[in-house]
Every structure is written in C-alpha cells, then in structure tokens.
Amino acid sequence: MGAAADKLMSKVAAEDRFDYSAAEVRDLQVQALNERFQERRNAIKLLKMRAEEAGIEEITSLDDMVGLLFPHTAYKSYPESFLMDERWDRLTKWLGTISPHPIEGVDLEGIKDVDDWIDRLAAKGYFISCSSGTTGKSAMLIASQKDMDWSKIDTVNVFAWGSGVKPARDRMMVGCAPVATVPKNKTISEAQVAAFSNPEWPRWDYPVPPITVGSLTKMVVMRKKMAEGSARPDEIAEFEQTSGERQKILDDAIVSTAEAIIANRDKKLMVAGLWSGLYAVAKAVRDRGYSAKDFDPDNCIYVGGGLKRAQLPADYQQFVHETFNIPEGRHFQNYSMQELNSGMPKCREGGRYHVPPWIVPMILNQDGDALLPVDINGGKVEGRAAFYDLSLDGRWGGIITGDKIELDYSPCQCGNKGPSITDNIARYADLQGDDKIGCAGTIDAYVRGMS
Amino acid sequence: MNAQVQANTGEPIVSAPIFVRGEVIEGSDIVHKSRDLGVTFSTANVPFDKAIPPRTEVPPLLNVPTSEIIDFLVETGQRLVAPDNAFVHECFDRMASTHILPREVIENVGKHAVSYLDRRILEAELRENFPDPRALDGWIPKQDFTGRKSFVRAYGPRLIHVLPGNSPGVAIKSIAQGALVKAVNLFKMSSADPFYTVAILRTMAAIDPEHPIVKSMSAVYWRGGEAAVENVLYRPQYFDKIVAWGGGDAINNVIKYLGPGFQLVSFDPKTSISMIGREALESEERMEEVASRAAADLMMLNQEACAASRFQFVEGPQELVDRFCAKFQRYIAERAAASGDIRPLAMDLKEQVETLMMLDDEFATWGRADGKGLVIRSEEPVDFHPINKIGNVVRVDRLDDAVKYVNVATQSIGFYPSERMADYRDALGAGGAQRVCPLGEVGPSTYGNPWDGMYPLHRFVHWMVNEDGIDPR
C-alpha cells in the first residue's frame, strides 16, 4: 500500500475530512494515484491493456488518469453466454481480467447456480456484488475483505455525518426495501444495525424473499429466450404467473411493514429503503390514519440510491419525511454507487454532496475521454462524473460513471472547503432519451413486457 | 443563408427551417441538441392549423393524374442533383455538422437516393403495389358474380411520417411515395437530420410553389415523445395513418395514440446477416472474392444501415474460417479508410470487444477496437450489436446451424453461393426473414418489390367504395 494513499485514507473518521481543499491535497492525490497505478498496472489485465494503449508509464497529473479509468460498463463486459450456459470456469477467468488479486483456490466443481458460484468465491475472499438489471446484463463487481472492512466503517460515518444521528444504538431499524443479498449490501446493513439499532429491538426486515443474483439472472435469461424466440408460450405463461405471485408478495410487504411501523410508533425509528419503497410504505401508514403527530420527532431515515426511474409524485420526499416525522435536520442523502467503495453525504446546510479526500473526482467531457478544464481554487465544472476511489482494494478504483454532475471547488455553506457536488445529478441515459429512430435495430425492440 | 446565433453555452446554433405546404418558416422556438454529435439546432414550433388542413377539404392531389405527379417527381430529382441547387448545398453543410457520418458519405447517399426519382422506378412501384393502379386516378367500376356493381378508389390518405435519422434516402422515398398515393403528408424529422426533407420540399416549391404536391407536404420538427405536440396531432380526425420507422421507445410512444381510425404502418428496426457456405473457402482466390463481397455488405452506409451485415455465419473448419476472417478484416479496413469515417467505438462496445481479446482462447480477433475495421470470430453470436465496422464471424459446421439465429428482426441475408439460396429460403421465411440475396448485393433490390413484408403503397391508401346497385341484366 502506498504512503500517500494511506495518508489520505487515514482521514476516514476525521471530523474535518471534508474540509481539505482540492488545492491542498491535489499533489498528495496525484502521488497516491501513481502509487495505485504502479501497484496495479501489471496485476489488472484490463488496466495493463489501457496503459499500453495510452502509453502511460507514470501518473503525473489527473490528465494521465483519463485513459485509465474504466467505464462503469467494464464490469458487465463478460460474454452473457458464460452466465446463461453456466460456464463458471469462463466467468471466473473473466473476473481474473479485472481483479488485481489472482483468483485462486476456488472450487468450481458441481456448482448449482450463480448464487452458489458467488458463495464459493466469497469463501475464498472474493466478494461479488451485482447491480440489478432486469433488462440487460448485471454488472459484477469484485471486492476484497479489505473493501468490506472499509465499507463497514464508511457507511456509519457517512450516515452520521449526513444526518447528524449519533451511533448510539437507541433506535428500531425498519427496512422498507427488498434487500439484494450481495456481500456489500449485507455488510452495510450489519454495520448499521451494530451502530444504530437498539439490541433489544430486532430490525424489521422487509418481508419479501431476498433478491439474489440467481433470481435476477433468471429474468435476464427469460428475456433473452423471449428475444430469440426460443421461449415456448407455456414458459412465458408460467413466468407471468410467477411475476404475478411475486407482485402479490411485494404488495403484502408494504402493508405489513406499515403495520409494524404503526405498532412501534412509540420507539425512536430509523427507516431505511429506496424512495419508491419508502413512499409506498408511507402512503400505507397515512391510509391507516397515522402521520407525523404519531411518531417520535427524532426519527431518522436512510435512503440508498436514487429513484431508479420510479414514477413518484413531485413532493414524494416531503411526503415521506412528514409521514414519519423526520425533522429538517435529519434528512439524509448520499451520492455513491455500487462501483465505488465510499459514500459522499449531502450536508444539511449547503445541500451539496461532499467528496472526501480519498476520492479524487474528475469531470470529463460527455464522451468521457478528456478532462474538462477547471480552476480547483474555487471554480465550478459540469460534465461526466468520474472518480478514483483510493479506498478500493479488490478492483481498480477508477471509474467513469453514467452521471452528469456539477462539481464545485468553492467552499460550501456548511463551512467545508473540500470539493462538493451540486444537488442536480442527472443520468446521461435519461437526458438522451429523445427520438433515436433508425431503420437499423435489434430484436430487443421486439420484446414486450420485461422492461 | 442564415446567420448563426450563439447558445448560452457559447456553442453555435444551426437554424433548421420547417416547411408547411409551400411556406418556409424559420424560428427559434425549439432549441435542440442533436443526438450523436451534440450539435445544437433551433427550429420553429409546429404551426398546427397551417400544417393540418381540415377534413372538409379534398386532398390537393386527389384529381391530379399519377402521370403528372411522376413528371413532377422526376423533375424534382433532376433539380436535386443540379450543381446550382443552393438548398441542397446548404443542407449538406448543415447536415455535416449534425450527422455521425462524414459529409462525403451523406452526399453520396443523398445523390444515390435521388436515383429513386426515375420514371421507370416510380411506375414500377405503382404497377407492383396495386392490382390496378388506375384506382389512384379514378373510381374503378367493379361487378361481382351476382351482378352487383360498384366503384372502388384508392383514396388519398392523410399520413404522418416519422422519419428515421440514419438514412437520408428515406426522406426522398417517403416524399415520393406520399405523393404517388396522393396523400396529405406531415413529415416529422429526426434530430439527427432536421434538414434534408426540407431541402427537397424547397426544391419542389422552387419548381412550382402552387403545385398540389407542394400543397400536400409539410416537414416539421418536434422532440419525439413530446406529449404537447403528439396529443394534438395523433388523432383520426386529422390523420389516418402514422408511418413510423424504428422500434423500442420510438414505437412504444406512438402506440399509445393508436385507436380506431388511427393506424400504424411500421417499418421495423432490422438487423442483417450473411450466410457463407463452405464453397467460399475452396481456394485462396475464392476466399478473397467472397471476403470482399462480405465486406461490401457489412460496410453499407458504414454499417449504419439496416441492410448492413452484422453477423457472418461461415461454414467450415476453424483454421479455414480464420484465414477468411483475416481477409475479411482487410477488406473492411480498406473500405473504412476510403470512407474517411473515423469514429471511435462507443465506450461500452470497446470494453466488450477488449474483453473478448483478453479471453483469447475462445474468441479470435483481427484488427483493433478503434473503429477502423474489426472482425471477431466466435462459436455463437456475440451478445452486443456489431456496429461501426465490426464483423462477427460465427463459425458453423453446417449453414443449417445458422438458421436458428434468424428472427423477425432479420431484414436481409446475403448468401453465398447463390445456388444454395433456394435450399434455405423456406426455412429463413419461417424464422421471420424479409429477404435473401446474393452476398455482396444487399444494397440493390428489384424495383416495386415489397418492403418489410408488405407492399407499402397499398397499405397507405384509404380504400373507398361506391356501391352502385345490381345490374338488371
């Protein structure tokens, strides 16, 4: 591990971690990036290829990094047939092209399904998290035990900083979202329970079967078969029925969670979920005649992820906050993504997402191939977000996202001098959804009912 | 012709005038960023009342004979290629700034498309689309076996054409076909090409601003999916049919508005493939020739066209197939270099290709992931869409093994050798394919032939009947 990176990462729990201006830490960050590059360049095949192509031997500025950042799609670049045809040896080999640590000693004999494969990898310290994609491929992000250990600390710090809630183990935690059983989510959830949950009040788990990678894969496989035309009508009918049953379970979960919240309304609560689920539960609570006046004025809320294209009324946040009596000072938002290992919490005074010194933000042009010029002494720049997260150990920390963000190098109203992100994050995919019409296309356009 | 104005961001805004039944309207009500190059253009709002004549008016072209319409279209064609046509020149200047393909490619495509405005071709379209093309010009008397009499007319419909953005040629074809069926036409231009349709219509107006063809045509722009516009236009009270290209979101969006009296004629998004039999690998010379033909099919409109081949199923042992791949890549690269089109691969595509390169024991690649021509050999089709000069050669033991990959999205199948087409066409049809042709000839098609599984002109018209009692004899 490099000295510069260690120095930056040592701020993980520092009170003033968001108060380092970019100018102050930039030299150290560039040194740290070079340390990581030198450690990894021969270890990660894809990185080696990129470095050779770009002719980069050493990182001396952020510009040198641009060609070495991986697009977020890099983690779904595996041939889908490996997954469909359950070729675990091939998938494992693919993981080897993006992992800095050689993947060794994993027993690949008699693997039942993808969940089993992931378990076998986890047993050897290779933790795979998958992004949920029902229409396309899932991204497979590999991480190490060090990454899990880091997440455990970071998630609690991020929430405490962003919400002002002290980890005092005095709350009842209520889950309002189906949990994907990937190692990172499990780790985060456990760390939060340990920090915030009253040991005498067990966490309320959203009563739905967990979303496993295997269950997501089934949907992806089905979609592919539908596209190919190899899905038989009986298979589609069965799939439709299963989807219907699953929907019923989801609908019931909203009701029973709302009832659990009402039954425990005398306790100090921490509700957690995605906006769509939180909104649905809040609505069910209101429908039963309960609202802010019935709940503890010190309740808090943990929101993960964005809207994920859920259609909600314009005032959904206010509605949720008011239902559970979440006071103004307890609102919490975090900007992060599966691809990163650390969070960027929103401050309550300035409403900006704050970037810690061990994450190096880079704003690129829309194509993601050049750094946009900006004055790091107080300037502002808008474009495609890219980050290097120095805290990542189990994979390359450099990632180009699909998000359009505005990065502000001027001090925030909250008093912190570090770089921060304006609260107007958008996805390029949503911005470009215009009339992209052509006569050329694929069979995907002919698949109905799975998006 | 038009001064360029600056957007807030400092980048230039290109003006895209609209055309409404003979009138050219400039405006900056809508400022839009074009999808592929990020160029911004400005255009006027749709003047609804002007663009949609009420149904109390008979279509302007109804009683203009098709022969006269053809005369006018042929003359338009000549004017479009005339060296002094300022509209077309200006248009290519503008298009070069919004289109993903280089100016020369667009210009060639535009010129090639004009060749459609040929009397013999237009007459062939009418002859093949209608059992009796005279039904377009008048009421055709009929009598059935009971002695009942009537008149039938291929009545001029009211059409909205949602034009694609990837093929300038579709604009010409749509205008010509809209004129041949005597329709009242509204063209919705795409953000990738908000210019060419208007240039054609302005050329027509320059010939005769009062001609009924000119009075039957409007070309406008709005952002696809804009409810404030589509909610107004997409009504049977105004239009009979919507003729739409594309799929996915573009079509899903249109479907919402369909209902009794407002129908969809869809030109679906398509993919094309090649099927190459073992005969191609018989000798070095044969391999060269076939590889060259395969590259021609792949490079159609630099692989932006629906007819451009994406997957090449090659029958034979790996060693021979690999030799074919090397030649194939060389021919693609030669064509790519000659076209001057040097777009890098999209990020995610590059990523996937490079992954295959790293997993080299199962896939083989020729060329690089740099947009200058690349061939990937695999045992089954790759799971991404080959585009920007990428061939995916899928090795098969027998061509029969390729048939299962044919589906309803398969447009053209370039076949080698031609003699084996007859053995396969029934099975290809069952899979949903649209056409099979000799390898290297995916571009040309017999004039007047069906397209997308239909005779489009026949679908466009509104068949109207005038019953006339029973013959007393």
What would you say this structure looks like, in words?
The complex is a heterodimer of chains A (451) and B (473). In chain A, the strands form four sheets. In chain A, strands 1, 9, 10, 11, 12, 13 and 14 form a seven-stranded mixed β-sheet that branches. In chain A, strands 4-5-6 form a three-stranded parallel β-sheet, covered by helices on one side. Chain A is built from 14 helices and 14 strands. In chain A, a hairpin with an 8-residue loop joins β7 (334-335) and β8 (344-345). With 451 residues, chain A is α+β, with helices and mostly antiparallel strands. Chain B is of the alpha/beta class and 473 residues long. Chain B has two domains: 5-268 and 452-465, Aldehyde Dehydrogenase, Chain A, domain 1 (3-Layer(aba) Sandwich), CATH 3.40.605.10; 271-438, 3-Layer(aba) Sandwich (Aldehyde Dehydrogenase, Chain A, domain 2). Chain B is built from 14 helices and 21 strands. Chain B has a seven-stranded mixed β-sheet with strand order 4-3-11-10-9-12-13, sandwiched between helices. The longest helix of chain B has 22 residues, at 318-339. Chain B is globular, with a radius of gyration of 24 Å. The interface between A and B is large, with 41 and 54 residues.
Question: Which features does this protein show?
Answer:
heterodimer; A: 451 residues; alpha+beta; 2 domains; seven-stranded mixed beta sheet; 14 strands; B: 473 residues; alpha/beta; Aldehyde Dehydrogenase, Chain A, domain 1; Aldehyde Dehydrogenase, Chain A, domain 2; 14 helices; globular
Summarize the structure.
With 451 residues, chain A is of the alpha+beta class. In chain A, 38% of the residues lie in helices and 13% in strands. Chain B folds into two domains: 5-268 and 452-465, 3-Layer(aba) Sandwich (Aldehyde Dehydrogenase, Chain A, domain 1), CATH 3.40.605.10; 271-438, 3-Layer(aba) Sandwich (Aldehyde Dehydrogenase, Chain A, domain 2).
Distance between the termini of chain A: 43 Å
* N- and C-termini, Cα separation of chain B: 68 Å
Structural class of chain A: alpha+beta
Largest interface by residue count? A-B, 41 and 54 residues
Number of strands of chain A: 14
Number of helices of chain B: 14
Contiguous uncertain segments of 5+ residues of chain B = 1-9
Strand sequence of the main sheet of chain B, in spatial order? 4-3-11-10-9-12-13
Shape of chain A: globular
CATH topology of the largest domain in chain B: Aldehyde Dehydrogenase, Chain A, domain 1
Estimate percent helicity of chain B.
25-40%
What is the CATH first-level class name of the largest domain in chain B?
A: Alpha Beta
How would you sum up the major sheet of chain A? 7 strands, mixed
The quaternary state of the protein chains shown equals: heterodimer
Q: Which spans of chain A of ≥5 residues are poorly predicted at pLDDT below 50?
A: none
Question: What series of H and E elements makes up the topology of chain A?
Answer: HHHHEHHHEEHEHHHEHEHEEEEEEEEH
CA radius of gyration of chain B is: 24 Å
Per CATH, the architecture of the largest domain in chain B is: 3-Layer(aba) Sandwich
